[in-house]
Amino acid sequence: MKSFRVFCLIIGVIFACADDKPFEPYFQKENAWECNKSRDLISREVLEFPLDSSLRFSTNSLGVTSIRGREYLSFLDADLMTLVIFDYKDPDKLRKVQFEYEGPNGVGNLSNSAHYLHTFDSIYLFHHWSGALLHMTDSGKVANRYPLTDYSDPANFPMPFPSTTSPILYSQGKLLIPCTTTLYQSDYRNYPSSLSVDLTTNKVQFLSLFPELYSKAHWGPKFKYEPGMAYNPATEELVLSYPVDPFLQIVNLRTKEVSQHFVGSEYFEAIPPFKQDPSHYLKRVKGTIYPEEDDHGLSTSDYRGIYYDQNQNLFYRVALIRPSLEKLSVSRAPDFSIIVLNERFEKLGERLFSSKVYDPSKIFLSSTGINLFRRDMYNENENKIAIEVFGPAEIRDN
Question: Which helix (H) or strand (E) holds 16?
């Protein structure tokens, strides 16, 4: 019995030492620096959408939807309480939906909220401050309310957090919505990172979980905990891109199987955490600003959105190439790259974009390719929204 106790003590010490080992982020050259470069992103066209005197372009929610075989670009202006809808191929054709702040159809404060244009008379708003999904008509009336989360619940449910770079998606009568954490956690292994809401039954179901590396360290500002999300309807697979994880997480919504694929950028290596201790957040004083944490987040490159191009059967993963700590005083806007992947998540190419020209927070898909907002052109003329469309092209040997 004594020898067994000694054995257990030794095993316990071994595991304790293993737990004390510092977390080292993973990186590999294959499918990052090394890949079969066969695709590049080529500029196809620049589209301009005129803004009348009653409009401006300030939005957290921008995208293209197909309605009855025709595409429409829409954006939500939270301050003006307005949804603006353009005919994607005929920008002079414009619709506006005005929402009310108060009253029986009042939606309240729409800041940080996002939308999904299903049809002209069926608009869905995720209301950030109440945690509810609002079904709106084109006259601005509330047709239905779907409670998605309860911020006051001590169970600390995840917070839906859709945006332009991680939009609300639609599949088979359900909306698919990415989630982030309401409060920092010490353990994320069972913490949901996306959900679906059935538009017929109102049933909410969690679809995916944060990867284990979020439980290994504290990664800094909340934007390091906001996943991007894509959906492949042919395979019924949900693909999640986590800011600090080089691995894409693939969830088969039919079989519930989960797999992962390493997809790295050629512009940076492993992403370091802010602190090795995942419970570091508990040491923070509420209401106190921590510039060191913010500076680390803004100077440490990470991944952002993931998009599935159904027409090309390709995925696009966005990587933010953040400036060094020394350069933060000059500019905090990161350059970015778009990584091109095939349906097996094999890297085919990567193209770098300047943040002086394009805005990485305003990237979305249409049937013609991946759309990038032209920040430089809008700064010159705020009466027009300029969008440059890029499409994949084969790289041919000379």
Answer: helix 2-20
* DSSP helix/strand/coil, 240: strand
Instruction: Read off the amino acid at residue 191.
Output: Y
Burial class (CB within 10 angstroms; exposed 0-12, middle 13-18, buried 19+) of 334: middle
Rounded Cα distance between 8 and 283, Å, is 33
The model's pLDDT over 224-275, given as tens digits with 9 standing for 90+, comes to 999 999 999 999 999 999 999 999 999 999 999 999 999 999 999 999 999 9
For CA atoms 362, 365, 366, 371, give the dihedral sign: positive
Which amino acid, residue 227? P
pTM given for the model:
0.91
Burial 116-152 (b: 16+ CB within 10 A, else e): bbbebeebbbbbbebbbbbbbebebebeeebebbeee
- Cross-sheet strand order for the sheet of 122-127: 114-119, 122-127, 132-136, 142-147
CA distance 94 to 86: 5
Q: Which residues, 6+ apart, have CB-to-CB distance to 280 below 8 Å?
A: 218, 274
The secondary element (H helix, E strand) that includes residue 296 is helix 291-299
